[in-house]
Amino acid sequence: MNLSEVRKEIESESAVAVLERVFERIEETKEFNAYITVCRERALEHAQAADKRRENGKSLSILDGVPIAVKDNMCIEGVKTTCASKILENFVSPYTATAVEKLEAAGAVIVGKTNMDEFAMGASNENSYFGRVINPVAKDRVPGGSSGGSAVAVASKTVALALGSDTGGSIRIPAACTGTVGIKPTYGRVSRYGVVAYASSLDQVGALSNNVKDLASVLDFMCGQDPKDNTSSSLPAANFGEHLGKDIKGKIIGLPKEYYAEGLDPKCKEVIETALAKLEKEGALLKEISLPSIRYAFESYCIIANAEASSNLSRFDGICYTRRSKEAKNLTDIYSMSRGEGFGSEAKLRILLGNYVLSGDFFNDYYVQAQKVRRMIAEDFSKAFSVCDIIASPAMPGLPKPLGISESDHLSMVLSDLYAVGVNLAGLPALVQPCGKLDGLPVGLQWIGKSFEESELLGVADAAERIF
Ligand code: GLN
Fold first, then answer.
1. Mean pLDDT to the nearest integer, 125-137
2. I need a labelling partner for 306 at 20 to 30 A (CA). Which of 270, 312, 321, 347 fits?
3. In 123-272, which ranges are E strands?
C-alpha cells in the first residue's frame, strides 16, 4: 500500500470509502496491537470534508483525504495521548502538535494513535502499558521500538503513512524489523511542539511508509520553522522530492569500518554487503571511512538520554496531566505514590539512572564527559563527509529479536540501537530501508546524510530501492 494507490482510490471512490476500509483493516489486524486509540468520528468528519473539497475541485494537496496514523506521544486536541503509560492513561491533549497540525492543514486524515514503548523508551515495543506489539512479518519476533505501532500500522497495511519519533533509533529500528522505510530528519527539521519530550536534545519527529517517495511527500508538508519550538530550524523547507528518480552513479558511499566490525551478525553483514555490491555495480563508489569516537556513542547516548528523561518526566507528578494515586494522603504521597503506580519499570530505571548521572560529582564524571564525546562524534561525522557523499551502515546488529527479549535479555534489546544513536547525538538525518532478507526476515540498511540534506538522502535511498 502506498500513497499513489491511496490517492487513486480517493479519486475513483472517496476519502470516506478509503477510511472505512482502514477501520476494517484495523479490526482485521487487531492481534498485532498497533493502535492504542482509533479516532473514528473525528477521522470520518475530516474525510467527509476532504470529499467535499474534492467534489468542488478544491483539494488541498496530495495528502487531502489520506489516512495517516500518529504515534501516541504526539498531541491531538481532544484526543488521548497516553505515551503507552498508565500514568497518562486518561490524558486528553488540550492542543495539537505542530507536525500533526501541518499534515491536517494539508488535508491528511488522522485515523488513530499508535502503540509504542512507554515514553518512547525501548527498542522492542514490549514496554507498553497497553500490551506489546506483534510483528506482522514474523509473529514470534518483536516489531522494534519505540515506534513499533507506527511501523506495524504501515507493515500490516492499515495505512500507507505513519508518524513516529526517533531519539535513539525509534523510527529506524522498527522500520528495520518490519521491512518498512523510516526517516529521522535532521534535528530541528520538524517542530517538536506538542510531542511529549523524552530527551529534548535528541528527539525528532519523522515518518514510516512502504517506500521512499512517500516519505518525501509527507516531509514536504510536515517541516518548517515553528515559533513554538525554538530549536526548529529557520532554513527554508526543501523540496524533498528533488532527487527522486535519479541514479546512484558516481555517489561516494562511506562505509564506517567501526560499524562493520565485531558486534554485527556475520550473516546480516553478508546480506548488507551483497546489497552494497549491487549499488557498486550501478556505479556507486564504496569507500571505507572511520568514525573513531563512535565506539563511545552508546554510553554517551545512555547518559544524555536518561539525564534529559529524568528531568522531562518530572512533570508527571500526580498534580498536572496525570492520574493521581487514590491512596495518597499528603503532597509527598501524591508525588511518590502516583509516580510509583503510574510509571512502568523501564521508565523508572531511566529516571533513576538519569538522576544518578546528574547528581553531585557524577555530573562531571558522566554527564559532562558524555557531552564532550557527543561533540567528538559530531566532528567525526563532519570529517567523514569531506570524503564521501553519504554513509551506509547496518540498521541493527542482527535480525529482529524474539518476543520476550526485553525480559530475557535486556542488554541485547538495548543494543539494538548500537548503530542508531550516533546519528541522534550528531543531529544528522538518517533513513532505514530493507536491503535483503535472512531466514525470511528483513535486513535493514541505514543511510546517514549530511545535516539538512534530506533531499539527497531520499534521492539515494530511492535509487537503492529500485536496485534492491
Ligand atoms: N531505544 C532507545 C531508548 O530506549 C531509543 C528510543 C527512541 O529513539 N525513542 O532510549
1. 98
2. 321
3. 161-166, 181-184, 204-209, 252-256
Strands in 35-38's sheet, in edge-to-edge order, are: 35-38, 109-114, 67-71, 161-166, 204-209, 181-184, 430-438, 441-448, 390-394, 252-256, 285-289
Instruction: Please provide the size of the chain in residues.
Output: 468
In whole angstroms, give the CA distance from residue 147 to residue 207: 10
Helix, strand counts (H, E) of the chain: 17, 11
**Residue 438 burial (CB count, 10 A):** 15
pLDDT bin (cut points 50, 70, 90) of residue 241 is very high
Which phi and psi angles does 402 have, rounded to 5°? -65, 150
Residue pLDDT, tens place only, 39-77: 999 999 999 999 999 999 999 999 999 999 999 999 999
Q: Which of 71, 102, 113, 251 is catalytic?
A: 71
For this structure, is 170 an active site residue? yes
C-alpha to C-alpha distance for 129 and 387, rounded to whole angstroms: 46
Cβ contact 443:272 at 8 Å: yes
Beta bridge partners of 445: 394, 433
Q: Find, among 120, 129, 87, 121, the residue nearest to 337 by Cα.
A: 87
Which amino acid belongs to residue 381?
A: F
Residue 340: strand, helix, or coil:
helix
- The percentage of the chain sitting over the pLDDT mark of 90, rounded to a whole number, equals 95
By most ligand atoms within 8 Å of CB, the mutation choice from 115, 121, 298, 313 for ligand 1 is: 121
146 is catalytic: yes
* Number of Cβ within a 10 Å radius of residue 178: 32
Average pLDDT over residues 299-325: 94
Cα of 46 from ligand 1 centre, angstroms: 32
Helix 454-467 with 266-281: angle, nearest 10 deg: 90
Beta-carbon count within 10 A of 2 CB: 15
The single-letter DSSP state of residue 363 is I
**Pairing relationship of beta strands 161-166 and 67-71 according to DSSP bridges:** parallel
Interacting residues of 248 by C-beta distance below 8 A, sequence separation 6+: 279, 282, 283, 284, 460, 463, 464, 467
E strand or H helix at 434, and its extent? strand 430-438
Q: pLDDT at position 320, please? A: 85
| Ligand 1 atom 10: residue of nearest CA | 121
